[in-house]
Amino acid sequence: MKLTAEISMYPLREQYVEPIHWFIHRLDNYPNIERVTNAMATQVVGEYAEVMAMLATEMQAAHEKFGKAVFVCKFIGGQLDLSHSE
To answer: What is the pLDDT of residues 13-63, one digit of tens each?
Structure first.
């Protein structure tokens, strides 16, 4: 089953841009997961278990590297077209 997720990261520090860029670029290490980022959030789509495992791994890595950060995620079962815009 496919899963589409939207993720926003809010590092609790003054220099917040570096951790966000670091997190986004780490998502590119997963060849089976498609990623699109805009000014507000990052969307990913892939197999359900792979997306959830990636998020668990990368959120933990971000917390270990940068400390406190809030992650806001939305999930929808199925594959959305990440290139769609209106």
So the answer is: 999 999 999 999 999 999 999 999 998 999 999 999 999 999 999 999 999
Q: How far apart are CA 84 and CA 64, in angstroms?
A: 34
Q: Which residues contact 22 (CB under 8 A, 6 or more apart)?
A: 62, 65, 66
Q: Using alpha carbons only, give the angle 76, 77, 80 rounded to the nearest 5 degrees.
A: 70
Residues comprising the chain, all counted: 86
What DSSP line would sit under 29-72, residue for residue?
T-TTSEEEE-SS-EEEEEEHHHHHHHHHHHHHHHHHHH--EEEE
The model carries a pTM of 0.90
